[in-house]
Every structure is written in structure tokens, then in C-alpha cells.
Design a protein that fits this description.
By secondary structure, this protein is an alpha+beta fold. The protein is built from twelve helices and nine strands. The radius of gyration is 22 Å and the shape is globular. Bound molecules: zinc ion (ZN) (2 copies). It comes from Iodobacter fluviatilis.
Amino acid sequence: MNALRPDLLALSSEALIALSNAGFVKKAQKDLSEGKSPELNSENGELIARYSDGHISTLPAGAGLRDARCTCPANGLCRHRVTMVLAYQHQASMANEAENEPTASSHEAAVETWSPALFKTELETLPSSLLKRAYRLASANTLIRLTAWQSDSPTPTAHLPMCSVRFFSSHSLSHARCDCSDQQVCEHIALAVMAFAQAPTENWTQLNVTVIPPQQNATAYDLFSSEAAMALDQAIQTIALQLWQEGSSQPLHHLEALFAQALQLAESLKWRWVLESLTALRQALLDQAARSSRAHPERTLALLCELQARWTSSRYACQPDAPSTPPLLPTCWVLASKVKSRWIIYD
Ligand SMILES: [Zn+2]
Ligand SMILES: [Zn+2]
């Protein structure tokens, strides 16, 4: 049973939460601990789980969790599909225990060091439009902060200026997760694989890299040159200036229109942290206006500074021509800060 899907055994709870959501994982864990396990079978490499509510989930051979199917009406992932993976892990560890083998639990399965560079050949199977978008990002000199696999932190990660990519399994690229709004493999995941592939093979844990695109794709491109990005820049600068000049107690009606415009632009660009940062700042201002107990002027100030610092750093990191003077603070210090806490909020 273990040999059938080692990639599923390598998925930790953290990975399952990132690939689906915390609610599904908790419910599935609760069901299994109460003995409500689906009936698991495999046919021609396909994993099949039959539930007492009559629904059946299937995972085709070699497919990742996102390609699992279920007979229930849920769009996207459902608790059946998540339960199927946990039940599979549970069954495998029971089988191991019965055979007196060391328990290959989900967390212990991936004991060997690995790098997402091994997905490099898989890049060729991705849609060309997606690769083109990745090359455009690369030709913008997008700075990427890589964190390598480590035994105490076994999820290789790439922090891009606008989003982060985590690789949860060495067995399948489909178990990589980007925090941009895409549920499927996106250009950021492709770019992150290229970055790992260009990094040295050993002797580093954290590294800043810019990907060198293939020659034919090396036309200079500025991430901030699109109409939407320029409009977003304008909206963010206006919001910040307005707040610095008039303070956070000013009536919010004219700021509201700017926030609405900025949020819509960030959403359309799929710039995740910008969206979260603007949402948090807007909420802090609304809390203050409503005299809510959640309102704290220091927090509002910190959110405003964070938005401006990260925005400036991103712009700096994405200049098509390498700047001649280094920034006062390394870009990665600003952009990589608070990443962990944002994940927790979003999970
Ligand atoms: Zn389902
Ligand atoms: Zn993405």
C-alpha cells in the first residue's frame, strides 16, 4: 500500500491545510479519530474512497490532490477528498505498525533532502502561456528569496515580491501551493522552480536569486509598467499621502473610493500581499471610525508603514535594470517579514 502513493504519505497537515483549508482537515481528522473512515480501495493505481453518506472520491494514478474527483456537489476540494488522503496515510501507518516496520508517518516520510529543482523537466509540460508569464517575471529581474529544504523545516519555499510559493511534496509539482488567488499551477510556481534550478545544489539554506530567462525570452519587462500596476501605485501613494497629511481620524468617505479602486486593482493583478495589506489597513481605519475596541492607533501606523515599505521594496526588487546603488535595507528583509503571520491569518 505504501508503494502506491508515497506522495500522499509525504503530505503533512500543514500541506493539506494549504492545499485545501483548515476546516476540511480538522473535520477529517475528527471523523477518522471517531472511526468514521471511508472504505479505501485501489484499482489500476487509482485510489477510491467510499463514504457512508454514499459519496465516492477518486484520485487517478499519479494525480495530485487538486485533480481528485468526488461525487458530492462541492466545487473545488471537498472534505471527502481531504479525508481520503488522511485515511490513506492512517491505513499505511497501521499496515507498517502491523509489519513492525518503522512508522512512515506523513512527517517522517520525507527524511531525505530534496530541491524543487527536480521539477525542472516538468516545466516543459506546462502551458506555454503560463511559461511566457513566468519568463516575463524573470526578465523583470524579479528578486526571489529561496529557503531550502531543512530537516526541521521540510518545505522548500520561494518568496516572490508579490506572493510566496511552498513545495509540499518532492513527488509532485501539483502539491506546490502559491498564495496568489490561483488554485492551479501558476507562473509563480514555474518561476520558483526555475529559481531553485539555478541555485547551487548545496551549502545554503537561504538565498536571493533572480532567474535568467532563456535568451529568446529575455526582453526587458517591468512588472510595474502595466496600466493596472501604475493605477495601483497611484492609488496606494494617494492613500498614504492622505493619511500622513490628515491623520487616521479624518472622515473616510473619500478614502473609501481609493481603497475600493486599489483593492480591485490588486485583485485583478493577483498581488496577494498587497490585497491583504490594503484590507487590513482599511479595516483598522473603519475600526477607529466605529470606536471599536479593536482599534489601536499604533497598529494603524504599523500597517501604513508596512504597506509603504513593502511596496517600495517590491518596486525596487522589480526594476528591469539592476540599480547601481544598493537599498538601505536588503529587499528580502522587508518583503520576507511577517510572512508567517500572514499565512496563519489566511489558513
Ligand atoms: Zn466530496
Ligand atoms: Zn501564484
